User: Which sequence fits this backbone?
């Protein structure tokens, strides 16, 4: 299996706290892998490193053999890494369609100058982008909301828009940071359906999530972090039964289970 994302010996310290301690794992091309662990185990730190929002102290991250540098989110996006955040970051006063198209403009480098200088060509590109954005919204099942202001959408639909926007960048690696947080069961099931539907042979997905039902329905492999260390890896069914995982979660608060 071709490895898309390779994390090797990743270490991140915050003063005296080792948030990630020589963490190594891979996500093969076309696979969806989940990252779980109790609160404070290092999941957000890891996703911030992979998306190059943060820097790290030791180890390396490569995507399709290309090295990802720390504190370079624009460079990471250029290398095909796209992410969502725990807290929604949509442009509330723009329409749903515009929110998705913004990502396309950005990734294709169309600015105002291009719009003026390349008017006919730009219009054709703009039309194509609109069609592609609508296709993504259709995939997410929210095409009927395309012209609605993003800020007026119910929370669950806003999550779907965020994923459609992340996909609009045409990524090779999609990072989803607690996408099911705050969703009810129906919305979570719909989100799982979307994540399953976007799977492509040239797209790898890494999802950080607490909801094990969601994890079991989208991910073939799960990595479990505790105190910055990997304590288990395997299928969702395997890690659920793993003694180290049970110990980590039983030792944590009820909220983490
Ligand atoms: N900017 C920071 N400064 C200092 N310590 C930090 C910082 N970010 C994270 N940490 C520490 O690193 C450790 C891992 O935190 P991280 O947020 O990655 O865990 P997590 O698994 O994502 O937790 P949660 O499930 O609560 O989001 C924790 O001990 C946390 O306090």
Assistant:
């Amino acid at each position: 299996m071709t490895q898309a994302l390779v994390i090797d010996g990743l270490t991140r310290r915050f003063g005296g706290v080792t948030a990630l301690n020589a963490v190594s794992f891979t996500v093969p091309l076309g696979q969806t892998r989940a990252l779980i662990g109790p609160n404070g185990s290092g999941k957000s730190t890891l996703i911030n490193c992979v998306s190059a929002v943060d820097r790290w102290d030791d180890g390396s991250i490569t995507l399709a053999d290309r090295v990802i540098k720390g504190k370079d989110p624009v460079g990471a996006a250029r290398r095909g890494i796209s992410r969502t955040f725990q807290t929604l970051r949509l442009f509330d006063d723009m329409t749903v369609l515009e929110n998705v198209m913004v990502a396309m403009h950005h990734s294709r480098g169309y600015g105002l100058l291009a719009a003026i200088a390349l008017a006919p060509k730009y219009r054709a590109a703009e039309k194509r982008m609109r069609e592609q954005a609508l296709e993504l919204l259709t995939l997410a099942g929210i095409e009927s909301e395309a012209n609605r202001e993003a800020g007026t959408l119910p929370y669950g639909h806003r999550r779907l828009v965020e994923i459609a926007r992340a996909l609009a960048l045409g990524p090779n690696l999609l990072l989803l940071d607690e996408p099911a947080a705050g969703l009810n069961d129906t919305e979570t099931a719909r989100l799982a359906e979307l994540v399953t539907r976007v799977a492509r042979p040239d797209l790898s997905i890494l999802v950080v999530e607490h909801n094990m039902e969601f994890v079991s329905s989208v991910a073939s492999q799960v990595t479990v972090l505790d105190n910055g260390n990997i304590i288990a890896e395997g299928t969702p069914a395997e890690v659920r039964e793993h003694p180290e995982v049970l110990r980590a979660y039983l030792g944590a608060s009820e909220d983490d289970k």
